[in-house]
Amino acid sequence: MLISYNLNDSKKMTPKQRARVYRVILETGIPYAVADATVGEIDAVGIEAAFVLALNRAGSSLMSNQQDRYAKIALLIDGRRYKDLKIRDVSMSEAIDFEVVAEDKLDQTSATVALASVVAKVHQEITMLGLDLIYPEYGFAKHNGYPTKAHKEAVAEHGLSAVHRTTWNVS
């Protein structure tokens, strides 16, 4: 089923293709975790530190669902700039360091990362659809939170909403 999709770039897949792949992931029970950082956290510590915070949350979530607490879990990250990250599961009484594998374009060589990219993109799309219902004037369903011309114009007209980062550069 998954072979029929070009999984090496979730952004090149249509929303319908991503939804089909996501459904297969759910049906097969492939373990995954999605974690976010809040707007407040991003504004307080910056986007990179908030990314690391979300990685820690996702890793800890995966560990809490493991039958074997000492099972080896590696975090695969698309982006070499993260190769020196130290990620730990601190959800239990003892902290466990995760192995981190970070390489550029890892989504093109790792089926696991390609599938994770689909999960992340579907999560983003679902989140943006929800935000679009609450803040229709910003058009989140159309731009998925990216700083498009229309998004910038909406912010210029309506100001920042409660879900916009105050540190976001709208120019």
From TrEMBL:
What reaction is this protein's catalytic activity?
Answer: Endonucleolytic cleavage to 5'-phosphomonoester
Residue ranges occupied by any RNase H type-2 domain in the UniProt entry: 1-171
Offer an example of a GO molecular function term for this protein.
RNA binding
Report whether Manganese shows up as a keyword of the record: yes
Tell me a GO cellular component: cytoplasm
The record's CDD domains line, in alphabetical order, gives: RNase_HII_bacteria_HII_like
What are the alphabetically sorted keywords of the record? Cytoplasm, Endonuclease, Hydrolase, Manganese, Metal-binding, Nuclease
The compartments listed are: Cytoplasm
Q: Which family, according to UniProt?
A: Belongs to the RNase HII family.
Annotated function: Endonuclease that specifically degrades the RNA of RNA-DNA hybrids.
**Full protein name:** Ribonuclease HII
Q: Which organism is it from?
A: marine sediment metagenome
